[in-house]
Amino acid sequence: MSSIPTLLSSAVEAIAGVDPELRPATKPQFGHFQSNVALRLAKAEGKPPREVAARIVDTLDVSAWCEPLEIAGPGFINFRIKSDVLAAEASNQLTDPAVGVLPADEPQRVVIDYSGANVAKQMHVGHLRSTVIGDCFNRVLTALGHTVIPQNHLGDWGTQFGMLVEQILEEELDATTLDLIKAEELYRRANEHFKEDPAFADKARKRVVALQSGDEQTLAIWRQLIALSVAGFNGVYARLGVKLTDDDLAGESTYNDDLAVVAAELEENGTAVIDDGALCVFVEGFNSPMIIRKTDGGYGYGITDLAAVRHRVRDLKADRMIYVVGTEQTYHFNQVFAVCRKAGYLPDDVVAEHAGYGLILGADGKRLRTRDGGTMKLINLLDAAEEKASPPIALAAIKYADLSSGLQKDYIFDIDRMVKAQGNTGPYLQYAHARCSQVLRKAEAEQLAVPTEITVIDEPAEQTLALTLTKYGETVADVAETLQPHRLCGYLYDLAVAYTDFYENCPVLKAEGDVRASRLALCRATQRVLAAGLDLLGIEALERM
What we know:
This protein is an alpha/beta fold. Strands 1-2-4-3 form a four-stranded antiparallel β-sheet, covered by helices on one side. The longest helix is centred in the middle third of the chain and has 25 residues.
C-alpha cells in the first residue's frame, strides 16, 4: 500500500502533468505538505501562478484524505491530512503483523552473493561492508516474501593452496590443530618460502596440480584448511549477528568441475574465440576481452564467475542476482554480466546487479589500517568498538554507520561519534526504542491498557509522528528495489526524531482519557516500527539503555 504522501503526489501529477515535488510544510499553519507545482507551470502556461494553483485545486479531488486545500503566497498549494485519516493509517501499525510491509506482487528467487572471505586468512574490514550490506538485503527481501538464497563465495581454490599444503607437509604440521590466526601465520611463512626458495616454489606448483587432479593427501589437508577457516568465520558471523550459515557456503571450488564445460560451451557456440593462443570473449563496450583459457591451458580470472552465473540461473532458478562486492570490481562484474548475456547464461528476464560499495577510511581519510600499516582485521575492529560500548550498542554503531552512508561512498570510521546516543547514529535509534519501551512499562505498572487504535491526534507532534509511521512499508519496498539501505536508515532516523519531538511535547502518562490512550497507542506503534526496521538493519532493538 502506498503512503498518503505518495497517493497525494500521484493525484496531483495526474492533473498537473509533472511531479508536484511535495515537501513537508515549514510551519504547522501551512498544513502537512506544500507544493510549488503551480509556480513551475505558470511560466510555461503564461498565466499567474495563483490562477494555475486555483485550477489545480478546483480539479483535484483529494477530499478522502485532506482538509480543503489552501493556496498561499505567490501560488503554493498547502495540503493538510485529516486527523481521522492519519489516525486510521497509523493504527494499522498496531495490528498488522508485518507492520505495514506488503508482500511483493511477484515473489522472486533472489541470489545474494556476499561476504566471500578467503580461506586461511582472517576476515578484514573490507569483509565488514559486504557481510553487513548483504545481510540487510537478505532481511529486507525476505520481509517482502522473496525467497533469498545467500551465496558465500569463499576464496577456497587456487595456486595459494599448493603453497599452503606444501608448507604444512614440510613443517610436519597437523592442520587440525590450527586456528585461523595460526593458519594466516602459516600463509605468511609459506609465501616467504615461495619467494625465497625456487625448489619449494616448484614443489608448490606441482602440489597445485595434485590438488586439481584429486590427490587424496592434498585434498585432505585442503579440507582441513577450509574447516578451520569456516569455524573462524562463523565466530565472526555470530558476533556480527548475521544470518549466514554453513548451508550458504558456495566457494570457488564449487565450480571447479564446471570450468572445462563452460570453456567448451563458449567455444562451441561461438561466444569465445581463439586469439593469440588464448580463448577469449570480446564484448562491445569493453576495452579488453575476457580471457577464458590462457595460452598455457590455465583458466582466466573471470570463468569462475561465469560458471557461478550459469549455476545460479540453471540450477538455483534465480530471478534476480545481487553481488555485494566493492566498487573496484565494477568493471569486472559489468563484463561478467555482458559475457553471460552474450553466452545465453543470463536470460533477459533475469536481473543481475552489482551492489558496489566504497571503502572504510581512517581519521586521516585513507584506507583504514592498523598502526603498523597492515590490513585491519575485522575482529580487531569489533574489539575496538566494544571497548567504547556494550556489544549490542557497539554493533548497532558499526552497522548503522556502514548502512547509513550511501552504498558507493567511502566513510570515515569514527567509533567515538558512532557510539553516541545522540545524532544520526545506531545507538540513537536504539535509545528511541528503549524510550518507547520505558513508557509502555510504566503504563503496564499503572495497569493502563494500550488500545489497538489511535483515535486522537490533534497536536502537530502527534500528527507528524503518525504520518511518519505510515511511510515504513513503502520505504522497505523502496530499499528492496533500489538496493539503497541508507534510505531505511534515513527513515528510521526521521521516525526517532519525530518520536523525540512527540515525547517532549505531548505528555503520555500525565494525559487523561482518550488522549492518554491514543498516545500510548502511538508509543506502541512507534516501538513496533522501530523494532522491525532495526531488525532489517541487523540491529538489536533494546528494551533498556
